[in-house]
Specification:
Length: about 400
């Protein structure tokens, strides 16, 4: 007797359900017929799977807008009582929380400022936030996905100096599945899934804020490294080795690009907000020669470093988030010259395009939502959701 056959059939059913949900997220508002065509499902299989997803309160079907002659079809949308992911972005001086439904739509939930406060107070507030969400949503809340302006590895903030914090363990925040990612890494995921790098197999994303972070994505997934701490591009030794970075290394690239670099070149003291200072210097650069010279040097250093990463990673496209785009725009000719000059000769005829990120300041949250929804639509997560629905009925 083959006892493995029912298990294989069950797993195959959840695999197909997971693929349908992924397609709904990839193309919100897709019709059942379109999803079936993309996944090469027969009419019978499509009907059976969508009926089951409706029964499990994962999807609903609503009439699609008429498209000429032919039989009417239905649009697949998240069920109003379906699973949700709580997405939290923890930035340098504030935080924002959203609820993500199965099609990736974000629903604002809460926001606040922490102003670089002690980690214990900030984490206590986030713990309370998650508890409030659980009280309101019950078992509809399936995971918490966090984007943090820090070096992240194995569920910990390994280097949270941008927040003014020591290393911090976030595991005590919740008993729910907790997914933690660096903000720049997750912004790169967002660009690969639904932004400027959507049509590319391999994308390089770089985000300039207080420092430089980023990610290499392959088929929409970030290359995270052995512990999850990959993407700390700002700490490559592309700079002056006489300069010591806050990370403990000498000559980090971000010391030539970020607010620290601008302040050093201008002989000024860096104020509390690196982002605000960079924006101020960019404004001053329109009329002030010394500020323009400082910005030009940062833009050139940015272009040179990107060329080195292109030589290393061979991406289809490079996307720029945060302040990287404004820095390039402030000195476009110098950036382009530095980028082209740093490329290996064989790449110069057709270099990877360098594009502004499509998601802007929302990129990290979009990426965190994508990773969280990946988690709650796995085969095992869907089976657990089905078991919970059965137990509740």
């Amino acid at each position: 007797m083959n006892t493995g056959r029912p298990a294989r059939a069950r797993d195959a059913r959840w695999r197909t359900a997971s693929a349908v949900l992924a397609e709904v997220r990839r193309a919100p508002g897709a019709t059942r017929a379109e999803v079936a065509h993309r996944l090469r499902l027969s009419t019978g299989s499509s009907t059976e799977i969508t009926a089951r997803l409706r029964e499990l309160r994962l999807l609903v079907e609503s009439p699609a807008a008429p498209r000429g002659r032919g039989r009417p079809t239905a649009v697949l949308r998240p069920h109003p009582e379906g699973p949700l992911v709580l997405v939290i972005e923890l930035r340098h001086d504030d935080w924002r929380a959203e609820l993500a439904s199965l099609d990736g739509t974000a629903h604002p939930f809460a926001a606040g400022r922490h102003g670089g406060g002690a980690p214990e107070a900030v984490l206590a507030r986030l713990h309370e936030l998650i508890a409030d969400a659980l009280e309101q949503l019950g078992d509809r809340l399936r995971a918490v996905s966090m984007a943090v302006a820090a070096t992240v590895g194995e569920g910990r903030l390994l280097d949270a100096s941008a927040l003014g914090w020591p290393p911090v363990d976030l595991a005590a925040l919740t008993d729910l599945p907790l997914l933690i990612g660096n903000d720049a890494t997750l912004a790169g995921v967002a660009e690969a899934r639904s932004g400027a790098a959507t049509d590319s197999r391999t994308g390089l994303h770089l985000l300039v804020e207080a420092g430089i972070g980023g990610s290499l994505t392959v088929n929409g997934l970030a290359v995270s490294g052995a512990t999850g701490a990959a993407g700390e591009y700002g700490h490559l030794p592309f700079g002056d080795r006489r300069l010591r970075c806050h990370c403990g290394a000498d000559g980090c690239w971000e010391l030539e690009v970020s607010a620290v670099a601008l302040a050093r070149r201008l002989g000024e003291r860096l104020p509390g907000s690196p982002r605000d200072y960079t924006l101020e210097v960019l404004r001053r650069a329109r009329d002030e020669p010394s500020a323009q010279a400082a910005v030009t040097a940062s833009a050139s250093a940015l272009g040179t470093g990107i060329a080195g990463l292109v030589n290393l990673h061979d991406p289809d496209v490079v996307t720029l988030g945060g302040l990287a785009g404004p820095l390039r725009s402030a000195a476009p000719a110098e950036f382009a010259s530095a980028y082209r000059g740093g490329l290996m000769a064989f790449r110069r005829a057709d270099p990877p395009p360098v594009l502004d990120a499509a998601h802007g300041e929302h990129g990290a949250r979009h990426g965190a939502a994508a990773v969280g929804l990946d988690h709650v639509t796995t085969e095992s997560a869907l089976a657990a959701w089905a078991d919970a629905r059965a137990a509740a009925s």
